[in-house]
Amino acid sequence: xxxxxxxxxxxxxxxxxxxxxxxxxxxxxxxxxxxxxxxxxxxxxxxxxxxxxxxxxxxxxxxxxxxxxxxxxxxxxxxxxxxxxxxxxxxxxxxxxxxxxxxxxxxxxxxxxxxxxxxxxxxxxxxxxxxxxxxxxxxxxxxxxxxxxxxxxxxxxxxxxxxxxxxxxxxxxxxxxxxxxxxxxxxxxxxxxxxxxxxxxxxxxxxxxxxxxxxxxxxxxxxxxxxxxxxxxxxxxxxxxxxxxxxxxxxxxxxxxxxxxxxxxxxxxxxxxxxxxxxxxxxxxxxxxxxxxxxxxxxxxxxxxxxxxxxxxxxxxxxxxxxxxxxxxxxxxxxxxxxxxxxxxxxxxxxxxxxxxxxxxxxxxxx
Length: 367
Ligand SMILES: Nc1ncnc2c1ncn2[C@@H]1O[C@H](COP(=O)(O)OP(=O)(O)OP(=O)(O)O)[C@@H](O)[C@H]1O
Known about the structure:
binds adenosine-5'-triphosphate, Rossmann fold, Alpha-Beta Plaits, 12 helices, 367 residues, alpha/beta, six-stranded mixed β-sheet, globular, 2 domains, 15 strands, four-stranded antiparallel β-sheet
């Protein structure tokens, strides 16, 4: 059995550990699942009264692999030897192009998908046990709200399934306030806008006051205002000491909302750190010029990783801005030149090595 620094339950302490007693540690130690020890724990008490420890592991994946059968015997390796630890109390973004393995990784963490090999632990337990004990709440990518009931009826019903089960949960009214849906209480759940429905789904996901909430592309398809409102609700929840893991295609969203960004591609982690860390890893720059010609011509310029045209401005993401600028000059395209350091988007495109990767800006334009 693995144990944290010290624990009343297993009566063991890791080298250098203290004898402080912590109920959260007790829960973690109660499992036979292995999670690596984490040091320098500081405590946060969340709204539900549970101790959450910044620095203690909420989710641990060890060499996890998952393949799906494909046509003609060729399988797809969706998750490929993934090793990842998510610390309690943090907000983490899982970023990656289409088909990178984000949803599969989330399915593994939620116990919805069994791994082919490797080990998945959530708060030191199997995902299934963590889900059963109410420690994880999830908002999947798809799923309609039950028709024919009001928002209040739906949220109250889900809330009731969690009350009296040992975990303290906030009153249903407070839950609706947190999810910013109090004003929708009397509305039919199946007749809401996309953004309103997502906030109701968020309320359902947090109804059991989980310590970890997993959100699979929570803002996809929402307009700017709806995204802003959903994030206000998620942020309020995270602020109570809960761990948040979300997958997204919105790079700016990951940069703005996450303490840590984990970039996955072809089922592997290819970058991991803060938005600043990830930007620093990429020496690329953005070269912008006035442009009214063909978009595809720009991709062929030397060292251009990706390009886009917004209005009459072309923005070229390049790994060698000098060479790109020279080529633009030779092509007679050097008008109103501007050269800037790489943003997260350029970093992402360079790291995933593909200008064809589907990334989306918060304005909704997909490339
Ligand atoms: N049930 C399945 N059967 C077969 N292949 C699957 C299945 N689910 C996912 N895949 C494949 O596994 C790979 C990873 O898919 P996954 O949905 O995990 O990626 P993703 O990063 O979440 O993608 P997206 O951003 O498009 O949602 C893809 O190649 C996908 O086609």
